[in-house]
């Protein structure tokens, strides 16, 4: 019986072989050209997103060139057991599909603190709704900027719905996130992200295989309507219903990009030709040129005739009078700590005159008085600019 049992080395070899076979099968779901195209899309869009995040956090943000692979969802669930933050991004214009961004919970806490202007970060605290709302807004800014780059790349308007953030594990995400439901494999695009010298981490973008193939197809112009036979871009495909394309040479991706560029160049040439033809249309009418004659304005009008209208025309217009007790400036993090009984110190001293405004324009200074249980203000000084205007 002992001779029939497998040794540990044989078991490891069998498991290793099975894993390698599975990875090979998964990687065959998208071709090398499609993988390169997805990497280029991610590189351009995330480059723009990094600029938007840098402006929002007031820190230098860098996102490296992406790594594209096809992963088994069950294997990902086994590898990533701790909770993470998933940001679900759905497209509403230009593209039909969605993708999920994966961030570490500690990175989300730091991003929230940076957005609130904090200089120290508490990573031991619990993740709150404020953290999820803050990272949703950050991703909304990032992906909104990325959509601008994608719009230029795909020559169509692309927009997203407001992202939704959730703290979740991969095991639960398989049943709750639309991107991972009823799917065995997923396209994983990995980026390395650094924020100043505060964050040095990795983020992931998960895209359904079908949607990834659709992105490549739209990028190559395979689904666009053409106006003439000269604008048709041919593709070597063995099945019309499939979105995968097999290419025979390594430089076929460059050729497809070049064909798209040439297509746009031909459109520009047609526009220029049309404009040039319109410029060449000339009329035979003769043109008469004359010197202009202007009326003399040497005589100044009499001053008594300048303002002869009655002030009664504007006498009934209401003007809002405001007396300002004082002002102060606080940071958002200080305002968030306010509660009942909090005292806010203003910039006015005791006994100092108050400012009086008419429709927001400073006109005078005054002192506080009490008239029949109501506050009032006695004018003590009129603004010089107000005097000059009147």
Intertermini distance:
112 Å
Report Rg. 34 Å
Structural class: alpha+beta
Bulk shape: flat
| Annotated CATH architecture of the largest domain | 3-Layer(aba) Sandwich
CATH superfamily of the largest domain: CheC-like
Description:
It is a single chain. With 390 residues, the protein is α+β, with helices and mostly antiparallel strands. It has helices at residues 8-27, 32-57, 73-79, 105-115, 129-154, 170-176, 209-220, 252-279, 332-335, 384-389, and strands spanning 61-63, 67-72, 84-93, 98-103, 159-160, 164-168, 185-195, 199-207, 321-324, 354-358, 361-371, 374-382. Strands 1, 2, 3, 4, 5, 6, 7 and 8 form an 8-stranded antiparallel β-sheet that branches. The chain has a 4-stranded antiparallel β-sheet with strand order 9-10-11-12. It is flat and about 85 Å long.
List keywords for this structure.
alpha+beta, FliN/MopA/SpaO, 390 residues, 4-stranded antiparallel beta sheet, FliN, 8-stranded antiparallel beta sheet, 21% strand
Topology:
Layout lengths: L7 H20 L4 H26 L3 E3 L3 E6 H7 L4 E10 L4 E6 L1 H11 L13 H26 L4 E2 L3 E5 L1 H7 L8 E11 L3 E9 L1 H12 L31 H28 L41 E4 L7 H4 L18 E5 L2 E11 L2 E9 L1 H6 L1
Antiparallel strand pairs: 1-7, 2-7, 3-4, 3-5, 3-6, 4-8, 7-8, 9-10, 10-11, 11-12
Helix pairs in contact: 2-5, 4-5
Summarize the structure.
By secondary structure, the chain is α+β, with helices and mostly antiparallel strands.
């Amino acid at each position: 019986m002992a001779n029939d049992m497998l040794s540990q080395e044989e078991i490891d070899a069998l498991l290793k072989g099975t894993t390698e076979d599975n990875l090979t099968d998964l990687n065959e779901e998208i071709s090398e050209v499609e993988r390169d195209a997805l990497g280029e899309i991610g590189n351009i869009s995330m480059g723009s997103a990094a600029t938007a995040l840098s402006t929002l956090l007031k820190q230098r943000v860098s996102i490296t060139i992406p790594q594209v692979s096809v992963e088994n969802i069950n294997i990902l669930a086994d590898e990533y057991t701790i909770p993470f933050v998933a940001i679900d991004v759905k497209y509403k214009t230009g593209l039909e599909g969605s993708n999920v961004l994966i961030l570490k919970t500690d990175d989300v806490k730091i991003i929230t603190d940076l957005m609130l202007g904090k200089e120290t970060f508490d990573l031991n605290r619990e993740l709150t709704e404020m953290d999820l709302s803050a990272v949703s807004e950050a991703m909304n800014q990032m992906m909104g900027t990325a959509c601008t780059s994608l719009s230029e790349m795909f020559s169509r308007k692309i927009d997203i719905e407001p992202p939704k953030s959730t703290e979740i594990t991969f095991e639960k995400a398989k049943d709750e996130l639309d991107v991972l439901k009823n799917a065995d494999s997923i396209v994983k695009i990995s980026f390395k992200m650094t924020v100043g010298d505060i964050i040095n981490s990795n983020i992931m973008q998960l895209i359904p295989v079908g949607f990834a193939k659709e992105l490549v197809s739209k990028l190559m112009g395979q689904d666009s309507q053409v106006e003439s036979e000269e604008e048709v871009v041919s593709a070597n495909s063995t099945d019309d219903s499939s979105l995968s394309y097999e290419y025979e040479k390594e430089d076929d991706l460059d050729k497809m990009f070049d064909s798209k560029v040439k297509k746009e160049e031909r459109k520009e040439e047609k526009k220029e030709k049309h404009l040039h033809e319109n410029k060449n249309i000339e009329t035979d009418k003769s043109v008469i040129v004359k010197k202009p004659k202007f009326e003399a304005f040497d005589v100044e009008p009499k001053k008594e005739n300048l303002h002869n209208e009655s002030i009664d025309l504007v006498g009934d217009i209401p003007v809002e009078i405001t007396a300002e007790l004082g002002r102060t400036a606080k940071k958002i993090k200080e305002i968030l700590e306010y509660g009942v009984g909090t005292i806010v110190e203003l910039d006015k001293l005791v006994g100092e005159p108050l400012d009086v405004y008419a429709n927001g324009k400073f006109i005078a200074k005054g002192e506080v008085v009490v008239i029949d249980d109501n506050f009032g203000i006695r004018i003590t000084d009129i603004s010089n600019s107000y005097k000059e205007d009147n």
